[in-house]
Structures are given as structure tokens and as C-alpha cells.
Design goal:
Elements (H helix, E strand, L loop, with lengths): L4 E6 L6 H12 L3 E2 L3 H7 L6 H19 L5 E5 L2 H12 L4 H9 L4 E5 L16 H18 L3 E4 L3 H13 L3
Parallel strand pairs: 1-3, 1-4, 2-3, 4-5
Helix pairs in contact: 1-7, 3-4, 4-5
């Protein structure tokens, strides 16, 4: 059986990653991998700690692998370990070796990098509404994307513009 093309949707908080992943999945009739961090963090009765990031990453990768077996042509991934890498480095000044090793092992056929040009959506799990911080995180994600070696495309603008740009980028894979 042919491996589905994995499309990673990446970017700072409140940049429409989940919405884009879901809309792409609907457009192509394929599965999407939701971000597991939200459910994990909502289930905690405390603030997250460094060790939680590896747990979140492990759950995210397990779900991605599980859903890849149900995809025919594409699997749309709302985040991956790069998010764990960025948050871990930002908050704790270090990244667990497992995260880096697992990132090096995994491949994506395309990264869709979401620009921080959408209005901030208030959410108790989001931490950095300041435009300067959103831009700083975006630059971190862009650098990680550029050095990944995977093809990538920037998606920006309103939701419909993002979807159109994302579909155009995905179509180049076929």
C-alpha cells in the first residue's frame, strides 16, 4: 500500500492551524490529526511541566501514525514535534533528546507555515497574545521549516485565502 503524503501545518498560536487542517481534510476527503496538546492540558489539574511536553509529543506522533493508516492520499497534521521543540526551548531552555531524535526520523511531504496575521483568539490555553511574541515565534517556526529540507509554503491572509494557498501547495504534490 502506498504511503499517504503527510502535510504538516505549523505556526504560532492562533494562526488558524486547526481550522486549516480540518478544511483541507474536508476538501480532500482525508483524515486530519488534531493537536493533542489541548486535550492533554485540559485534563491536567496543574500547570504543565517539562516532562509533559514529551508525553504530549509522544501522543501526537502515535495519533499521527494511527491516522496515517486510514489515509488514502493525504494526511493533514495539525502540528508535530517542532511545536514541542519551540515551546520546550522557549519555556525551559532545553529540548528532550527524544523529541530531536524523533523529529529527525520523521518526514513530511509538505509544510504549510501559517503566518501570524489573523486576529488573536482568546483562549485560556494560549500564552502569548502580544504581536511581538507571535512574530518571534513565527520566525522560530520559519527557521525550523527552512532547515527541515522539506518543501514548504507560507499561508497568510483571511481563512479563504489560506485555504486557497494551501490547496495550491498540496496540488503540487500530486
Amino acid at each position: 500500500m502506498k504511503r499517504p503524503k503527510r502535510i504538516l501545518i505549523l505556526g504560532p498560536e492562533s494562526t488558524g492551524k486547526s481550522t486549516l487542517a480540518e478544511k483541507l481534510a474536508q476538501h480532500y476527503g482525508e483524515p486530519w490529526v488534531p493537536e493533542v496538546a489541548r486535550a492533554y492540558l485540559e485534563g491536567l489539574n496543574r500547570h504543565y511541566v517539562y516532562a509533559d511536553l514529551v508525553q504530549i509529543g509522544s501522543y501526537q506522533m502515535s495519533l499521527e501514525d494511527e491516522l496515517a493508516s486510514t489515509a488514502k492520499h493525504f494526511l493533514f497534521c495539525d502540528t508535530d514535534l517542532r511545536v514541542i521543540q519551540v515551546w520546550s526551548q522557549h519555556r525551559y531552555g532545553k529540548v528532550d533528546p527524544w523529541v530531536l531524535e524523533e523529529m529527525a526520523r520523521r518526514t513530511y511531504d509538505l509544510i504549510l507555515l501559517c503566518a501570524p496575521d489573523l486576529p488573536w483568539q482568546t483562549d485560556p490555553l494560549r500564552e502569548h497574545p502580544e504581536l511581538e511574541m507571535r512574530q518571534q515565534f513565527f520566525e522560530m517556526y520559519q527557521q525550523i521549516t527552512e532547515i527541515s529540507g522539506f518543501p514548504w509554503a507560507l499561508v497568510a491572509g483571511e481563512s479563504k485565502d489560506r485555504l486557497r494557498a494551501a490547496i495550491q501547495a498540496v496540488e503540487t504534490l500530486e
